[in-house]
Amino acid sequence: MQARAQLRKKLRVARRELSSEQHEDAAKRIVLQLNALPFLNEGTTIAGYLVNDGEVNLKYYINSVWQASSKKRFTLPVLHPVCKGHLLFLSYKPNTQLIWNKYNIEEPVLACKNVVPVTQCDVILMPLVGFDNKGNRLGMGGGYYDRTLSFTQRQIGSHSPPKKRRPKLVGIAHDIQEVDALPIAPWDVPLDAIVTPTRTLHFTNS
């Protein structure tokens, strides 16, 4: 997987080199793109993320939803304290207390009462390092989302209904993070859509 590691390094550098003005513009433009998604507007529980390492910042989108609707709830990913390499999702409100995890990413303080089962999330907005026009996502390399969302993978040849409710999976990225084709791995979880500040790509994976 050396090709993935090299590509990941190159794309991380590229997004970090965007100017502060470009990052701010992306944060504002992503709101318009996300608001145009019917399934996102209809969903009541949305998982997001807090910006890190040059990712597209969701701050304006999250704030706009908080101000517009009291019926929606946000969750944020938290490193699972027991299942290594997995994520938990915790409720996120304006007054939620945050701490820094081992990757220097902010996350809610762990409290069992605030845990939201991943199957209760209608939509999961996921950061990514790279993507292609087939819906493939290159993450940071830890595999946290892929492990946590492995239940969403369609079983080839199986006609039985899914055992767990499947959320819509949406990758969020800067336009410069697109590549012609990603080297994919068997455990990669494909996305339903990829949203950039200028466009939205839709895929059929469910």
From TrEMBL:
Keyword Metal-binding annotated: yes
**Entry binding sites for ATP:** 4-8, 137-145
GO MF annotation terms: 5-formyltetrahydrofolate cyclo-ligase activity; ATP binding; metal ion binding
List, alphabetically, the Gene3D superfamilies matched: NagB/RpiA/CoA transferase-like
What SUPFAM superfamilies is this protein classified in? NagB/RpiA/CoA transferase-like (SSF100950)
* UniProt keyword Translocase, yes or no: no
Example of a GO biological process term: tetrahydrofolate interconversion
| Family the UniProt entry places it in | Belongs to the 5-formyltetrahydrofolate cyclo-ligase family.
Supply the NCBIfam families for this chain: MTHFS_bact
Protein name in UniProt: 5-formyltetrahydrofolate cyclo-ligase
State the organism named in the record.
Alteromonas marina
